[in-house]
Specification:
This protein is of the alpha/beta class. The protein has 2 domains: about 80 residues, Arc Repressor Mutant, subunit A, CATH 1.10.10; about 220 residues, Rossmann fold, CATH 3.40.50.150. It is about 45% helix and about 15% strand. The chain has 16 helices and 12 strands. The N terminus and C terminus are likely disordered. Bound molecules: S-adenosylmethionine. S-adenosylmethionine binds next to helix 10, helix 11 and helix 12. The site of S-adenosylmethionine has 20 residues, from helix 10, helix 11 and helix 12.
């Protein structure tokens, strides 16, 4: 059968891509109404769920059928639905829950993607971007909780992969720069029982970050430092970790952050960027496609994903030298940098 005329042909593949938006919104609405949480104890009818959520019974039934088509629930019979293992990943108390990520993608990311064309045409980011955008976000308790929780959900796993891939044994103190709740720090401290550290982020994040660190049982070894990495990065830590920070910023802002890291890191210390490193040539490999997705998202908030060459140049322009790149068993790599031999610190 000629391509494009049958199942699995070019036309069907592209149609799936064109219409992919429905999945994001079915999942977002399901999570917003806490349907996975409500269905976790036992199968329920859509009429009962409509009462509990104050929604229209007919349309909630149709939404649940959408979830069934995505295998997030099983359509048992009539109007009764049962949660599936896939759907259970969206429950609030699931280990590594995807709830926060679903909320974030159905709302803020959704609005951002709708502005892609304007960014391409103008060369300018279309969402609130730059130094104040994170402060605005972190000052809005509802948005901040969704965003920070989404980041932490993803970062705990990435942090665990980083701890497996990179030897932290020689470092006693770790600063998670722009660490949010400190999920990466949690993973690293769990892997290094003798180490201690802190998450360094905007002052607004403090209370929730401390609660998260406490909840993850590293509270005694982990603190929180409020401030801005554009002003200063706290000294006194021999390992600075920046996960998903560089990709938020253009080269000029990234250099300001890195230069402050270069000033803060002691002799023998290290700066580790945990980022996805773009290949020079793009293929349709799923891992590469994920990085490109990230790059297009960053386009609208003023950031970008970078290649190894671009990271090397960025670090060199900030007084740091890229010493090696350590892959992890995720799409993230550890980009290791040290103060350049000619760097700011005389006598080192
Ligand atoms: C993409 S998130 C990454 C969070 C965390 N590193 C992770 O990967 O889970 C970027 C973080 O940078 C923080 N941030 C933004 N501007 C900052 C500033 N000027 N100083 C310190 N942190 C800042 C944000 O509040 C946010 O937590």
């Amino acid at each position: 059968m000629a391509e494009g005329t049958g199942t699995g042909g070019a036309r069907e593949r592209v149609l799936e891509m064109i219409m992919g938006c429905w999945r994001t919104q079915v999942i977002h609405e399901a999570v917003r109404l806490q349907l996975p949480d409500r269905l976790a104890p036992e199968p329920l009818s859509s009429d009962l769920l409509a009462k509990a959520t104050g929604t229209d019974p007919e349309n909630l039934y149709r939404l649940l059928r959408g979830m069934a088509a995505l295998e997030l629930v099983r359509h048992v019979e009539g109007r009764v639905f049962e949660l599936t293992p896939d759907g259970a990943t969206l429950c609030t108390d699931a280990a590594d829950t995807l709830r926060g990520i679903a909320m974030h993608w159905g709302d803020r990311q959704w609005r951002s993607m709708a502005l892609l064309g304007k960014a391409v045409a103008s060369g300018k980011s279309q969402m609130a971007a730059g130094t104040d955008s994170f402060s605005d976000l972190q000052r809005d308790p509802e948005q901040a909780a969704v965003f920070n929780r989404a980041m932490a959900e993803q970062s705990l796993r990435i942090g665990e992969a980083v701890a497996r891939a990179y030897d932290f044994a020689r470092y006693r103190s770790i600063l998670d720069v722009g660490g949010g709740y400190g999920a990466v720090l949690v993973a690293l401290l769990r892997a290094q029982p003798a180490a201690q550290g802190a998450s360094f982020d905007l002052p607004e994040v403090r209370a929730q970050a401390l609660a998260y660190l406490h909840e993850h049982a590293v509270g005694e070894r982990a603190g929180y430092i409020g401030g801005s990495f554009f002003e200063q990065v706290p000294a006194g830590f021999d390992c600075l970790v920046l996960k998903y920070i560089m990709h938020d910023w253009d080269d000029q802002n990234s250099q300001r952050i890195l230069a402050n890291c270069a000033r803060a890191v002691p002799p023998g210390g290290v700066v580790l960027l945990i980022e996805q490193v773009l290949p020079e040539r793009i293929t349709a490999d799923p891992a590469v496609a994920g990085m490109i997705r990230g790059d297009l998202i960053m386009m609208n908030i003023g950031g970008k994903e970078r290649t190894e060459r671009e990271y090397r140049d960025l670090l060199a322009a900030s007084g740091l030298e890229l010493t090696r790149i350590v892959p992890t068993d995720t799409v993230f790599s550890v980009i290791e940098a040290r103060p350049a031999t000619t760097a700011h610190k005389s006598g080192t």
